[in-house]
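TASK: fixed-backbone design
INPUT:
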């Protein structure tokens, strides 16, 4: 298909598959390497932290393939799957910690999309094994010795608190996902008790919803954004699964506070919140942090707590998208790091892929797997179909069995919706800079003027048939914004952004190495839409 060359999450997922499988060495029994360093001057890569059965990566690859339909290097997934299933032949593995929690998500996703009850059976067995380690206190529960095949995290016999307790967050994410996908009553009970423990007993939040779980790896307290946010997002998933509005409102309180710790303008959120582990002279962002903020925004909106799609739009289009390492430069030349193109930055700045360094650029795959989870969440929820009515929540390129969406933003203010199945109604959310009821929005159906109806911020078009083309146009202007974000060389940095719609299209000071915003910014501003050919994939679910 020929589509505008604008942000497309299915294509970004395809690129992420390249990065995730590029960090694997088939000659070493398909080991994944969780950290990669670049030596820029010599154009070399060095991989470290080997993992033979990486649950987080396996879970992310499944989601990326669902979004994109790509079978690129599918043998990697197959080898890891074989290794995972081997673990069940003799003894059921204890799935705890980060990888263990993501294995529950992995089994849940496979159950849904493969229609194979075997995954539910294995998941139930894993839950039974997990129960053996659970200390049940009635209305809450925890694992006092979080150890086993996929994690040795807290070896004490008492109740984990603070940093050690946060590792339950991944388990809660996975067990909740397993409950939602399979209806497992055992998963629901375990998830409920873990959720109550993490919110009220684990020493992770104060009464305002602020994070307080610090680590002392360097001998001083350090408040890590993403580690704590893992727990917050897990609580939000559980709140959604059980329609717990009170818990959702608690999460919202924390989310609002987190917005104040970084830059909601571009989606930059710090690796650490005020308490840093060392005397580094810079303040960076991890993609993990941005990914969790995106997921929280979508989930709070889905629950009806508030509407945060505008936050999602800004975070996604800017720092998040720019944190993904590209395959080609703006002229179509392949970068030397093409083998791992598609990974996401672990220590980024508003204008750089990595923290200041003349030699090494380092990234950790944890950021890429969390980025894929965020992309999947947005991709899944940006359109919502119910009994002949379709709602479009985000103006990005998207293929589906109901409609195909072509977004021209930020070249110009235009979105095309090609109808593929009859619709009683189509609701399209107007962009953040367009007020509800604006007379500046023009709608045409098959080239003919259409009188717009508004439902809040949504533009409504009724009675559409297969083949109809809905074209929405609206103003899109540029503005200049100055904002101080983070530090470099120990000093706060003021950045100057040129923003087109919600897209940053230019930044000063510019990057020194891997470019942020430069790649396509110059094309977005010249008044001519660039097009690309893509193979569009539509999943039949």
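OUTPUT:
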């Amino acid at each position: 298909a020929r589509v505008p060359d604008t942000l497309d999450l299915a294509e970004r997922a395809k690129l992420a598959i390249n990065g995730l499988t590029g960090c694997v060495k088939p000659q070493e029994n398909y080991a994944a390497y969780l950290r990669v360093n670049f030596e820029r001057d010599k154009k070399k890569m060095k991989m470290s932290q080997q993992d033979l059965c990486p649950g987080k990566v396996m879970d992310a690859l499944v989601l990326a393939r669902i979004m994109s339909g790509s079978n690129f290097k599918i043998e990697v997934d197959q080898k890891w799957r074989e290794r995972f299933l081997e673990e069940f032949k003799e003894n059921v593995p204890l799935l705890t910690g980060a990888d263990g929690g993501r294995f529950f998500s992995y089994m849940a996703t496979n159950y849904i999309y493969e229609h194979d009850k075997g995954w539910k059976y294995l998941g139930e067995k894993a839950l039974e094994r997990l129960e053996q380690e659970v200390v049940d206190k009635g209305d809450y529960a925890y694992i006092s010795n979080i150890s086993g095949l996929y994690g040795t995290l807290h070896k004490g016999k008492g109740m984990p608190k603070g940093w050690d307790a946060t590792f339950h967050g991944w388990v809660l994410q996975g067990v909740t996902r397993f409950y939602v996908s399979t209806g497992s009553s055992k998963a629901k009970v375990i998830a409920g008790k873990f959720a109550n423990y993490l919110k009220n007993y684990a020493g992770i939040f104060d009464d305002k919803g602020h994070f307080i779980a610090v680590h002392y790896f360097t001998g001083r307290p350090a408040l890590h954004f993403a580690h704590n946010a893992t727990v917050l997002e897990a609580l939000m998933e559980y709140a959604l699964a059980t329609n717990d509005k009170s818990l959702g409102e608690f999460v919202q309180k924390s989310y609002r506070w987190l917005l104040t710790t970084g830059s909601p303008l571009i989606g930059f959120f710090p690796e650490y919140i005020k308490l840093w582990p060392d005397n580094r002279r810079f303040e960076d962002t991890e993609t993990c942090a941005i990914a969790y903020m995106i997921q929280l925004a979508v989930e709070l909106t889905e629950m009806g707590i508030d509407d945060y799609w505008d936050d999602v739009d800004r975070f996604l289009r800017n720092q998040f998208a720019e944190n993904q390492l590209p395959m080609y430069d703006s002229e179509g030349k392949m970068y030397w790091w093409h083998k791992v193109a598609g990974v996401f930055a672990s220590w980024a700045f508003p204008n750089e892929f990595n923290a200041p360094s003349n030699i090494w650029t380092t990234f950790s795959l944890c950021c890429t797997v969390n980025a894929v989870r965020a992309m999947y969440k947005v991709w899944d929820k940006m359109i919502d179909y119910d009994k002949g009515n379709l709602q479009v929540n985000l103006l990005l390129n998207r293929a589906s069995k109901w409609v195909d969406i072509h977004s021209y933003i930020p070249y110009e203010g235009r979105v095309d919706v090609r109808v593929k199945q009859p619709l009683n109604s189509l609701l399209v959310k107007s962009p953040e800079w367009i007020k509800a009821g604006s007379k500046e929005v023009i709608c045409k159906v098959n080239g003919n003027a259409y009188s717009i109806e508004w439902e809040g911020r949504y533009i409504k078009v009724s009675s559409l048939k297969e083949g109809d083309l809905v074209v929405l146009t609206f103003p899109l202007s540029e503005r200049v914004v100055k904002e101080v974000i983070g530090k470099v060389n120990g000093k706060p940095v003021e950045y100057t952004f040129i923003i087109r719609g919600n897209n940053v299209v230019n930044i000063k000071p510019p990057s020194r190495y891997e470019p942020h915003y430069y790649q396509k910014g110059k094309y977005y501003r010249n008044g001519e839409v660039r097009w690309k050919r893509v193979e569009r994939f539509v999943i039949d679910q």
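COMMENT: The first strand starts at residue 2 and ends at 4.
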